[in-house]
Amino acid sequence: MARLLATSLFLASALAAPSQLPSYANRYDFIIVGGGTSGLVLANRLSEDPNLTVAVVEAGDSVFGNPNVTSSTGYGLAFGTDIDYAFQSTPQEHAGNKSQILRAGKALGGTSTINGMVYLRAETSQIDAFAKLGNNISWDSLLLYYKKAEGLQRPTEIQSQLGATYEANQHGFEGPLTVGWPTEMVGNNFSQTLNTTYAAMGLPWNEDPNGGHMRGWNVYPQTSDPSANLREDAARAYYFPFSGRANLHLYLNSSVQRITWEAQSNTTLPSASGVAYKDASGAEEQLLANKDVILSAGSLVSPLILERSGVGNPAILKQFGIEPKIDLPNVGENLQDQTTGSYGTTANLNLTGTSDYVAYLNIHDIFGDDTEQLREHVQSSIPAWADEAVADSGGTANRTAIQQLFEIQHSMIFDDEVVISEVLVKAPSEGSGSISYWGLMPFSRGNIHISSANASAPAYINPNYFQLDYDVSQLVGTVKAARRNANTAPLKNFLPTETSPGLDVVPANAPKEVWAEWLKSTYRSNFHYISTAAMMPKEMGGVVGDDHLVYGSANVRVVDASVLPFQVSGHLTATLYALAERAADVIKAAHA
Ligand SMILES: Cc1cc2nc3c(=O)[nH]c(=O)nc-3n(C[C@H](O)[C@H](O)[C@H](O)COP(=O)(O)OP(=O)(O)OC[C@H]3O[C@@H](n4cnc5c(N)ncnc54)[C@H](O)[C@@H]3O)c2cc1C
Ligand SMILES: *[C@@H]1O[C@H](CO)[C@@H](O)[C@H](O)[C@H]1NC(C)=O
Ligand SMILES: *[C@@H]1O[C@H](CO)[C@@H](O)[C@H](O)[C@H]1NC(C)=O
Ligand SMILES: *[C@@H]1O[C@H](CO)[C@@H](O)[C@H](O)[C@H]1NC(C)=O
Ligand SMILES: *[C@@H]1O[C@H](CO)[C@@H](O)[C@H](O)[C@H]1NC(C)=O
Ligand SMILES: *[C@@H]1O[C@H](CO)[C@@H](O)[C@H](O)[C@H]1NC(C)=O
Ligand SMILES: *[C@@H]1O[C@H](CO)[C@@H](O)[C@H](O)[C@H]1NC(C)=O
Ligand SMILES: *[C@@H]1O[C@H](CO)[C@@H](O)[C@H](O)[C@H]1NC(C)=O
Ligand SMILES: *[C@@H]1O[C@H](CO)[C@@H](O)[C@H](O)[C@H]1NC(C)=O
Ligand SMILES: *[C@@H]1O[C@H](CO)[C@@H](O)[C@H](O)[C@H]1NC(C)=O
Ligand SMILES: *[C@@H]1O[C@H](CO)[C@@H](O)[C@H](O)[C@H]1NC(C)=O
Ligand SMILES: *[C@@H]1O[C@H](CO)[C@@H](O)[C@H](O)[C@H]1NC(C)=O
């Protein structure tokens, strides 16, 4: 491992000195902007062909030896350090005008170096929804790529006894991304305690929530290496073992400012010539692309790079003196995120080890007999919600299309019965218990735009949390499920007293308004920002097609969380790794 580190750092520092580069330096077939979760999958797969040259331009540094990253139990250690962008949202007008911290990883490996390591995919109907928008993507076709990415470490006998289960036909075992169960799992019969508790709540055990059907509870796997006891991030999986490839060059500490363009004739689509970036010293440099420029800078950066390159809403670009190149008003629109919080108790059990226990609930589990009424309320609200979404987009969004998107989402929730609530129980320790909860399918739509032509200036980022009433209902229903969970035996015997919110703040039979007030003063972002360059038809508000090409450009693509048109009920990386694997095949085929 130490030698691997030395090699990669040597490569990185060699690259800082242009005189040591081979003659093709500064000109590559592909330039990948952002060496993060998605970008490194592309870098790896495109550079498999020794005839293709690939540059990765990454704003952060290598974090191979950073203990805040490598620790498989250290979630949160990296927050607020220099590898966390910690962007700020605008004041959230539907939640007390408080702004939120929006975390994202600034490092080789991107956000996979600081995230919670949860490996959970999606509901089949959420991936099939891509096809409803005209994309050639379905659960069955993406499953091949989930498997291609994954290197599942089968649970040991002890891990199996402690609740780790999987269905072999849903998994990949040879892929670069090591996935496994925690090295030290929680014992003390705790998974049986939960099994009995959920049975009493009417929620079944789910043998494998990664098979496309997520309802139930499970001890899920994570992106970590159980035998080495290390976090598995995109760099460890897709870059370091391959860093010796002569046709793959990495530029660290290098922040892309904008795309540069070929001189344009009036008969061809605008074609990117390369990118302009700032190196570690702050000097502006340029790289040239023979084939494509691929943006993988994340959903809170890729749309901004498009805008600074003249791709976006001309009215916004002109405000900052940027000459419009491609009129694509929905760049940065459709921003979606989930909201989360923590429910707390005292505990009379002090367990050691880490295991991850997830309960996924659908609309009936959350709303019971009120489900039909809610179905009708949401259905009849869609026209008004579409009006509100259009207004909040400054009139940019296509009302008919928003309405169609909301209808699809309604159908996923009420017809397909995808899970809408996630409840994560932490094993009680040190006298306290905690349960995290979040709503999975919010309707609210926000946006992100540049606030200056200067790439260093903070962007305008408005997730628009709780814009629409369903999102409040969904989160209230979810936190009530967390409270129900803590108050169901046998778990309840170990968690004697609620500390957060506490019955004095939110009484046992509190109405929705009381819950909502507490939630809005304590929630945070769930960090699942998506859809700021959505994969759907241009007239519906899309920015890329299913080949990831930006509409109206000859050779600019976006491959990262920006392209997801809807939330998935899993966490994002499992699906992003799979989508990037698919994108690599699509891009190779386009240039074959
Ligand atoms: C705190 C937190 C916890 C999370 N927990 C989980 C979890 O448990 N499981 C899960 O699956 N998902 C989780 N997520 C979400 C998931 O990690 C991200 O959605 C995913 O990693 C995003 O991948 P990406 O490829 O879109 O972008 P990223 O991985 O963020 O990659 C973008 C890269 O681009 C670089 N970059 C940005 N701007 C520039 C520029 N101008 N020039 C050059 N490079 C640039 C960045 O430094 C970064 O390396 C979590 C997210 C956060 C923030
Ligand atoms: C990146 O920048 C950091 C901080 O300035 C520096 O410590 C590090 O050596 C740089 N890395 C490379 C590869 O140049
Ligand atoms: C690379 O290019 C050479 C020369 O054009 C060709 O002979 C070879 O087959 C190519 N290799 C691959 C993997 O495409
Ligand atoms: C790790 O994080 C802590 C704060 O959690 C910080 O003080 C420390 O500098 C970080 N270490 C590295 C190597 O960044
Ligand atoms: C939020 O800020 C806006 C604009 O400053 C203001 O109009 C509104 O009244 C504020 N709302 C709350 C709840 O404070
Ligand atoms: C759709 O994708 C499949 C692979 O999943 C591929 O075989 C097929 O050719 C694609 N169809 C089109 C029209 O691109
Ligand atoms: C939970 O109980 C079910 C039977 O009701 C059983 O099949 C399953 O293996 C149990 N899971 C765990 C982790 O004990
Ligand atoms: C384990 O937990 C289950 C469910 O609470 C209980 O029935 C069983 O007796 C426990 N077993 C032991 C050995 O504590
Ligand atoms: C642009 O296209 C028109 C025909 O539509 C042609 O007459 C004109 O010469 C072209 N201009 C350039 C600069 O190519
Ligand atoms: C909990 O257990 C840990 C490890 O066994 C121990 O260090 C700690 O003192 C215990 N704390 C309490 C409150 O019992
Ligand atoms: C760009 O913004 C950064 C941060 O706000 C500032 O330090 C820098 O001076 C600005 N550059 C220009 C050219 O205005
Ligand atoms: C708005 O969306 C609808 C439905 O997708 C589409 O038919 C129509 O062309 C779009 N309108 C515009 C102006 O793009």
TrEMBL record:
Keywords: FAD, Flavoprotein, Oxidoreductase, Signal. Its cofactor is FAD. It comes from the Eukaryota. The keyword Manganese does not apply. Transmembrane segments: none annotated. The active site is at residues 528, 571. The keyword Hydrolase does not apply. Residues 105-128, 298-312 form the Glucose-methanol-choline oxidoreductase N-terminal domain. Belongs to the GMC oxidoreductase family. PANTHER family: GLUCOSE-METHANOL-CHOLINE GMC OXIDOREDUCTASE, GLUCOSE-METHANOL-CHOLINE OXIDOREDUCTASE N-TERMINAL DOMAIN-CONTAINING PROTEIN. This is GMC oxidoreductase. It comes from Zasmidium cellare ATCC 36951. The lineage of its organism: Eukaryota, Fungi, Dikarya, Ascomycota, Pezizomycotina.
